[in-house]
Amino acid sequence: MIPGGGQPNMQQLLQQAQKMQQDLANAQEELARTEVDGQAGGGLVRATVTGAGELRALKIDPKVVDPDAASIEETVETLADLIVAAVQAANENAQTLQQQKLGPLAQGLGGGSGIPGLPF
Question: What is the side-by-side order of every strand in the sheet holding 55-60?
């Protein structure tokens, strides 16, 4: 129901819905192009993901692979832990970016959570 009575203008509603849909598609495209970083071990391992969560790069400081520091098994285990932590940090940053870009659009569509296809 429209405040003050009267019927909704269906053409206007359709245009608004199409604009919101286009804005959402534009925001998703921008997220796919935007890269965010995450790091672990004080920056020894850095992961870069897109705003959509696609892993694009992984940089490992050679200091992590110091054969004199520990056994090979310990070095590999530590490196694996650092990689996982860096990727998780990058993905958390990507989710924050998604909420910043898509949150206002989702609210315009009538809520935030519960909209199929949106990650929040």
Answer: 35-40, 45-50, 55-60
